[in-house]
Structures are given as C-alpha cells and as structure tokens.
Amino acid sequence: QLRRFIHNDTQHLSRLLQSPCVGQQLVVTEGVYSMDGDSAPLAEIQHIARRHHAWLLVDDAHGIGVTGDEGRGTCWLRGVKPELLVVTFGKGFGVSGAAVLCSESVADYLLQFARHLVYSTSMPPAQAQALSASLAVIRSDEGGERREKLAALVQRFRAGVNASRFTLLNAHSAIQPLIVGDNSRALRLAEALRQQGCWATAIRPPTVPVGTARLRLTLTQAHEACDIDRLLEVLHGAGE
Predict the structure, then answer these.
(1) Which domain holds residue 74?
(2) Cβ neighbours of residue 74 under 8 Å, at least 6 residues apart?
C-alpha cells in the first residue's frame, strides 16, 4: 500500500504511521527535492519513522557530492543514517549510474529480488574507474573549493532575483525554481531566455501542482559570477 504525506509535513507523516500498513513500513523522501530545490527535515522524519518502527529511505540524488563535508550529502549534514540511502552518479558526480547504501542483509535481499538489478547489465569497469576519479575530486580540497563556489553563486542569484516578478522558494541548493504560475507564461519566459543564450526548463503540471508552473534553473560550479549576472539581466528584461 502506498500512502503520501504532505510535503515536509511531519505531523501528517506521524498520523499516517499511527495507522500502520501490513508488514514493514518504509518512509521514502528526497534529501534535496528535485522540483522545489528545498531540503527535507531529515532528522525529524527519521525520529518519527523510528518511533513507529518504520524504515527510512532517502534519495539524495541532488545532495550527494555537493552538500556536506567532502560532499557526503544531506544525510551526513543532518546527522541521519537511513536504512537505505540511494545516491545517483549523474548529478554531482558527473558520470552515470546509482547505488543503494544499506546493510549487508538488505543488500543480499536486493541482489536476489530487485528486478531492475537482476535483469540489468553490470556496470562496466571503465564507468567504475570514472566514478572513482570523480569521488577523488569530490573529497579533495579542490572539491571543497568547488562546493564553496557553487554556494556563492546560488547566494548571488537569489540576492539578485526580482521578487516582484517571480516567486522564489526557500531553496538554497543548486536547483533554483522561479514560480510563475501560468503554463503559457512559463513557456514564453523559457523561450525568451533561450533566445538570449540562457537555458531554462519550463516545468508544468502534472510534474508540479496546478498553478505552480515554473522555470527550473540549475546552477553549477562551472558557471562564473558574470554568468549569473547575465542570467539575472535576461530574466528581468524578458518580455511577457
């Protein structure tokens, strides 16, 4: 049985867990949300899950590599150790693939029963080597400098956005959504930015709730301050 709890509403989660399903309950959340760019209250979610003897799974696709000391991700940052931690290598690692970090007994179970794993080709050695090289950079002093630079770029962007034209969410990750509401307006703005050399994706329902169409902007440490300033200039000058 699948039941959804309201976004970051830990009281709603607690009420759902008070009426348990049959079998082992599993609470699933992202560390950094892919569409809103905000973070989950992981410590509180873990506390509630354990109080009700539920397991916790955290998908940290957008946190691993770019958050926390040595890029250890949002779970490390919040002092949380979930039963299952899913990390992907196509974001901060810049490669591809994914991994599930868990106990040996859970790993044995997944090896036998996870259909997507059982019927998939194993990772080639070259990809594993690329991941090792990427991890070395992430954990190095250079990796720390890159994360600091990214954080500064995010802060620069948020400080420069015209709040009268866009709704800026409480997101301090590399994902910076600008809520524009109307689907057609989101499409027009995305096209206007594209014509000026700025790539922004227009995200519309059903991917996001009705009335919250947005421009989804993703910043990287490869950007420079001048790139952020140019983006802000184009955003504020985009015709409607």
Answers:
(1) 10-139
(2) 31, 32, 39, 40, 42, 58, 60, 63, 67, 68, 80
